[in-house]
Amino acid sequence: MNSPLLRIGIACYPTYGGSGALATELGIALADRGHEIHFLSYESPFRLKEFHSNIIYHQVGVQDYPLFKYPPYALALATTMAEVCELHDLEVLHVHYAIPHLVSANLAKQMLIDQDVKVISTLHGTDITVVGNDPSYRRVVQFSLEEADGVTAVSQYLKNETYRSVGTTCEIRVIPNFVDLNRFSASVCPEAAKLCCDDEVILIHVSNFRPVKRVNDLVHVMVELKNNGVSARLIMVGDGPDKAAAELLARQLKVAEQINFLGLQDSVEQIIPCADIFLLPSEFESFGLSALEAMACGVPVIATNSGGLPEVIQDGVSGKLVSIGDIQGFALAIQELVTDPDALKRMGKNARHEAVNRFSIQDVVPAYLDYYYELLSDEDDMFCDQNVEAT
Are 377 and 386 in contact (CB under 8 A)? Predict the structure, then answer.
């Protein structure tokens, strides 16, 4: 049976982070399959770098009016959503991160009196565990989830946590994050390889440097490795509120020469394969997209045993899991792999194998499409006159 091509709106945060990355990669993958994709945000998503004939970006403008202490972005977004849905006859509004995108999407749907757009929300983590838990937002998050036509979560952990913390009764479907295995591979970029020296263990961390990422822990890990006589270099990719503090701490603890702070980088897939080990010391990760991207590059991951990370990383197989804040545990796990090259190589192969067999873009994107079609199938034979196949 042929599946119709869809017109889909995607709202997300355009900045560095897992939710924006996943939303953008999903939109690109759907466009490659022939679907018409409309991104809505205040800036173009950071991973939307190349031209795609099936992708249109709609910038959401917010009025700078003296009466507004805080610009009402949620209202401007709802207005843009409604206008784009009407103008382009969208069938699906898929929003990533509950606040404010789901609130805006539900409001836009109410404005579309003669058009039934299906609103789907994907929960990514802190929109539930931090924002959704805040008394200022909990009820509106709960209400918005109940009003949505469909809700997905990127891990079983996040699904359970949503029920526990928000108290919603809506059905939540788990569809994991995915990775483009052609982009993220073991292929080493010659320019990025210049960061490495043969006599150093290359460690890497990629994040938005928010407090939840605990990047200062990695500076302390480098001190521990130095004291234990391990020659290592840490490559820190990204930017955020804790970056300056981490740089200062590195200078104070006299390991600044062993750490490269690269700032924001668009092509992390060119940098990660240069590393021997990927480090993720987060207080919380609903899934850990950066860990998955490292695994796809054949780089084993040492991460905290928190949130949804155990669903991605098999302890002792594709990486190692340690307790939150366990500096010595991180250092010991690194040293164990460094002193056993065969185990390091085997773990890297296992990491790639896990990415290929469980989180491939070719396998996960169809799960989203199936969900769209399932929700749209309530329409009265809406597809009976359409016979265009979506690949």
Answer: no
Distances (CA, A) of 24 to 43, 289, 341: 12, 13, 36
| Cβ burial, residue 50 (10 Å; 0-12/13-18/19+) | exposed
Beta-carbon contacts of residue 264 (< 8 Å; ≥ 6 apart):
16, 237, 238, 239
> What whole-number distance in Å separates Cα of residue 135 and Cα of residue 117?
30
Domains of the chain: 7-178+360-376 (3.40.50.2000), 190-358 (3.40.50.2000)
DSSP state of 166: H
What is the mean predicted confidence (pLDDT) over 4-18?
Answer: 87
pLDDT digits (tens, 9 = 90+) for 143-176: 999 999 999 999 999 999 999 888 888 999 999 9
Helix, strand, coil content of the chain in percent (nearest 5): 40, 15, 40
DSSP-derived letter for residue 60 is P
Q: Give whole-number Cα distances, 121 to 67, 100, 184, 365, in Å.
A: 31, 11, 26, 15
| Rounded Cα gap, residues 60 and 77, in angstroms | 6
Contact 93, 81 (CB under 8 A): yes
Q: Where are the beta strands (DSSP E) in 238-357?
A: 259-263, 277-280, 301-304, 319-322
pLDDT digits (tens, 9 = 90+) for 289-300: 899 999 999 999
Return the DSSP state at 360: B
Residue 106: which of 123, 96, 93, 115 has the closest Cα?
93
Q: Is 29 exposed, middle or buried (0-12, 13-18, 19+ CB in 10 A)?
A: buried
Contact, 166 vs 145, CB < 8 A? yes
Which of 79-83, 97-101, 291-295, 356-360 is predicted with the least confidence, judged by mean pLDDT?
A: 97-101
Q: Please give the model's pTM, rounded to 2 decimal places.
A: 0.86
Which two tokens mark 339? 């002193």
Q: Which amino acid is at 226?
A: K
